Amino acid sequence: MNFIIYDLMFLVVFAIIIGTLLYSKRKNIKKEGLLLLYKAKWGMKLIDYIGGKYKKTLKFLSYISIVLGYFLMVAMVYLFGKIIYIYVVMPSVVRAIKIPPIMPLIPYIDKVVPNLGLPPFYFTYWIIILALIAIPHEFFHGIFMKRYGVKIKSTGFGFFPFFLPIFLAAFVEQDEKSFVKASNFKQMAILSAGTFANILTAIFFFIIMFLFFSVAFVPAGITFDNYAYSGIAISGISMINNITLENPSYQKVLDLIDEEGFNEIFVGEEKYFLTKSLIEKQEEGDLLFVYDDAPAIRNNIQGAIRYIEHGENYVIIENFEDLSIFMAGLSPGDVINITTSLEDKSRNSYYNIKLEENPVEEGKAWLGIGFVNQKRSGVIGKIYNLMSSFKKPHVYYEPRYDGFSEFIYNLLWWIVLICISVALVNMLPVGIFDGGRFFYLTILVLTKSESAAKKSFKFVTWFFLFLVAVLMAFWLISFI
Fold this sequence. Notes:
By secondary structure, the chain is of the alpha+beta class. It has helices spanning 3-24, 44-53, 55-89, 91-97, 109-112, 123-147, 176-181, 184-216, 250-256, 276-280, 295-298, 320-328, 378-387, 404-426, 434-447, 450-477; strands spanning 29-32, 35-40, 152-160, 166-174, 217-222, 226-227, 229-233, 239-240, 243-244, 263-267, 270-274, 287-292, 304-310, 313-316, 335-341, 348-354, 356-357, 365-366, 369-370, 395-399. The longest helix has 35 residues, at 55-89. α15 (434-447) crosses α16 (450-477).
């Protein structure tokens, strides 16, 4: 049975259990805003023990937590600015992504937005990750409250009452008067403690992910992410898909390109290939990058290269060095058989290819596949790079334990990504997040004026809400 069926069954069972719990404990549940809060005293003894016994350690960690809070706040503001830039000046990218700027993390988001290339995100993952994010986050808030003498009224869980009574978050309810009386430093330490916990959780599970990957996956091929390409002058293009082109321009080329597949482009007698996605990634200008008429693209090689056969030589390709050594022993005109596997492992593909002479290195055999820098830029890009830093570039890994390896690895991947993402978002200087009051206290410390701090806090909150509205507007405009 497909795991999705089990996952949906778990969703139903979980909803029934939570619904029963809510009904049986309804005396302990209070409605606050859109949430139902189940108030209890869970974890209070452990919070009191750690917060009371390790005061010196927690004082030292407070400085780290506050500095980390500022770092995350700056990183999130920078990331927010980058997102605005993309949505305002790159409508083609927004159309390709299709995802709105505000997209809740929901089970099966990989199916809702398939073009992002995300791994599966099951309901089971969602529940586990919510617990791993919310419980340490609130637990650290509670420990630092105890350390600095802020009274804790209750602990518990929050539920969203509409559609399904699904567990949403944990909470530690503080006594507001006690919290406000604490010094600015103590308040900032308490506020930043939650994101500090999320980062520590991310680091811990990153180590687990690395260790698990090293034993659950083995190198089994190489992946190429491009075909050989060249830059051509748009003014030199004479024909596209057998249509003669006069006075060629970027827009004319774009209009003649088919949405799917490879398009044939001629510059005089020279043939090249171009796809819709490749031209849309380039800015309008006089130069256009196109794929060379190489054996790889002509045979439409896809997937990870697993094996190559030439005559009696049969080689298992496990890394880039294996391919380089094998190709070095071949000559133009040699015929090779290539076996590839698609990323979804659904099937193998077989290609019989005649190699040509490398246009750059005379006498060298040429297949025409490309390997580009896979590192991403930006804050989120750096997070992605970090999460895959233990993988060798362009290596295709095969699970040692089919099904189980991917399930656990994807779960760990999502845990790390979401922990870091929640830490970033939570330090956004907006009123509804910990970063909002953290920002307010920062201005209060700098100006010594409560009035200035309140005005700054209010202005920044409304400014970011305005920017969110702008993002939504440009997202809608991009499809017009």
